[in-house]
Amino acid sequence: MNIDIKGIVVICGNYGSGKTETAVNLAAARKKDGVDVKIADLDLVNPYFRTREVRVSLEKMGIDVVLPNKKYMHADLPILAPAVAGMIQKPSELTILDAGGDDAGVTVLAALYDHLSRKKVHMLQVINPFRPFTENVKGCIRIKEEIERSSKMKITGLVGNANLIDETIPDHIYKGYDFLKDVSKETGLKIEFITIVSHLIPQLEMDRFTCPVLKINRKLNPPWKRV
Question: What is the number of domains present in the chain?
């Protein structure tokens, strides 16, 4: 089952959810499908996992990447608004906004509310049940409500990103999927897709998943893996 999501897509989630890795891989996958893609990095909170790390490779694929000016990197969030507002006013087939982690990181969306409120927006919450604060359904709902309150927007769908990075095994994927179904049932939100790191796919019974699957190729390295 292919991912066919289009329009303006906001990717959000708590710290460590893997939202930026998800956003980058979604952009790359949809571009390979022939979709015109733009992506904006709105994450000014977490300095380690940023779309700008893979900017060159994305641009080589023909993906437009919008980043804050370097001199504004640590400035107030609304400085981002003019460049991103242009993307929202004239969106491509798929316009991805990689929002910051937790409620504090999505505050920039509130600054863009006037622009976003005039458009149909898919706002997806990325969930990794093996991270603190989202290891149970109540925690996921709490994060959801915090993000909605700070962004002035509503979550419209869920993305499952169950993993323990290099220690991920098939059982983690199955358990994460079952967990996400519980969150979906409790919130009434649709599961848009789940992610699976590419090397695990041959080891999985893919017919156990009734939603689209985004194949993940790790593009962002944590600081402890950098030379």
Answer: 1
Tell me if 227 is assigned to some domain: no
Q: pLDDT digit of tens for each residue in the chain (227 aa)? A: 889 999 999 999 998 899 989 999 999 999 999 999 999 988 766 654 466 677 888 999 999 998 766 555 555 555 566 778 888 989 999 999 998 776 667 877 888 888 899 999 999 999 999 999 999 999 999 999 999 999 999 999 999 999 999 999 999 999 999 999 999 999 999 999 999 999 999 999 999 999 999 999 987 765 445 44
Tokens of 195: 């992610």
CB 51 within 8 A of CB 38: no
Q: What pTM was estimated for this model as a whole? A: 0.91
Enclosing domain of residue 194: 7-220
User: Residue 82 belongs to a domain with what CATH number?
Assistant: 3.40.50.300
Let me know if residue 148 belongs to a domain.
yes
Decide if 2 is inside a domain: no
In 3D space, the residue among 103, 128, 108, 121 whose CA is nearest the CA of residue 21 turns out to be: 128
In-domain check, residue 21 = yes
